[in-house]
Amino acid sequence: MRTYFRKDGEWKEIAVTENPNPFILERSVFFHARSDTYLIADAYRGREIKQAISDFFQAAAGLGPDVGEVKTAESGKVIRIASKPTLVVYVGHDGLMDFTLTKTFQGTSGEKRDAIILACASKNYFASGLRPTGAQPLLWTTGLMAPEAYTLKAALDGWTAGESAQQIRGRAAAAYAKYQKCGPAAAQRLFGTGW
How far does CA 69 lie from the centroid of its chain? Predict the structure, then answer.
C-alpha cells in the first residue's frame, strides 16, 4: 500500500514511524489536501494478524488508541491526529477464516463510522464482529479476492469526493476488473455495501 500511495499524486506521505508498537512494523501517514483527510496505514507483523483484526474492530467501535501527534518528515511540523476515525479499513488476509475472536467491541451511539474490509469473503466472516461496533460496511467482499492497494485507492477516491456507497462500490469493482483482468460484472458481484 505504501508504495502504491506514494506514487499517487493526490496522497502525500507526510510521516513514517518504524515499530510504533510491538505489533506494528511501520506506520505511514498520508495527507489528501483536497479533502483535508489523513490516512494512517499500519503494517502489522504477519504473526500479529489476530491483533490486527482485533484493532480493526476496536477502531470501528470508536475505541481505538489515540494516535496522538505526528511529526511531518519535511517540515518537522507537529500534527494532531483525531483518535476517532470516520472511516476504518482492513486490507489483508481474512484471518477470521482461521480463528475466531473472543472479544467484541461495542460502539458508542451517535457517532458515524464507515468500514472497508478488503479480504476474502469479508462479508461472511466480519459481519458478526462489525455489527456491535456500530460502523456501517461501506465496502466488503463476497468471495475470494486479492486485497491490493489499487482497490482501496479507488474506494478512497469516491469516499473523499463524497460519493454514495454504490458509486464507491462501482469504483472499487472497476479498479479490480482492470488490474485482475476479470469481467466487470464478476468484479461488481465480488463487492458489496451495507448490511
Answer: 20
